[in-house]
Write a structure and sequence with these properties.
The protein is built from eleven helices and twelve strands. It is of the alpha/beta class. Strand 9, helix 5 and strand 10 form a beta-alpha-beta unit. Helix 1 crosses helix 6, helix 3 runs parallel beside helix 4 and helix 7 crosses helix 11.
Length: about 290
Amino acid sequence: MARILITGGTGLVGTRLSKMLSDRKHEVLILTRNPKKENEFKWDLNSNYIDDKALLHTDYIIHLAGAGIADKRWTEKRKKVIIDSRVDTASLLYRKVNELKITLKGFISASGIGYYGAKTSDIIYEENHNPGTDYIANVCVLWEAAAEQFERLKIPVTILRTGIVLSNKGGALDKMKTPIISPLGTGDQYLPWIHLDDLCQLYINAVENNLTGIFNAVAPEHHTSKTFSKTLAKSLKRPYLGIGVPSFLLKLVFGEMAIILLKGSRISAKKIEKNGGDYSFRFLKLEKALNDLS
């Protein structure tokens, strides 16, 4: 049994991960701005504060905290919030772990497939590919660099570059369940995805099997916006309209953020399939994942 501290523990992934870890008899602690439960502890980035009790005797930190990438339009202020909520929080954790001389067994951080850039190409991106050069790629580069600080303390680091997380409670899938299902833009952009339980199992694997390094956290099956929409429509038994939502309309509504809806390349899952130890995907196929969540 490990003592595991989770940031972002009340979010979509954190809530499910906490339950799955607890079910496996791990002790789960949560860092939150408003602690209410016995296992919740206060932290506040603005005042550089973390309750020391959250860190003492902790074996692993799982860093999921971060303002939603697609929750609001990307104003300059929002862009700063997106970066600071990931990077500055990781740096705060690093400083406190160093200050308190906490001997962590591992620091496990979320990242995003946006690392490779918001673009549609023929490349199937693997973990050793160079990062993109746009804003969303820069977020991920800074995010990962903040996590990798822990290597200076001889603490193993694991980074999971995550695709679209499919869940039956919130997240991107809820927003896709419109009365009529349509692709976005041309529909030719790829939508790398992963079932929530598979993603949580990857985090558990990082704890239980000492999985370290950088991994793409995506299912092996590739889908474009068109094929994803068709599969979703079939799963929900709703009509599918092959005419995509116009790009100009998405740009009008979402501004610069529309790029993450209109662009996307294939992401390789080969490394995690080969090096994941006992891990194997429960949901290899989108149809099975959607049926499980319907």
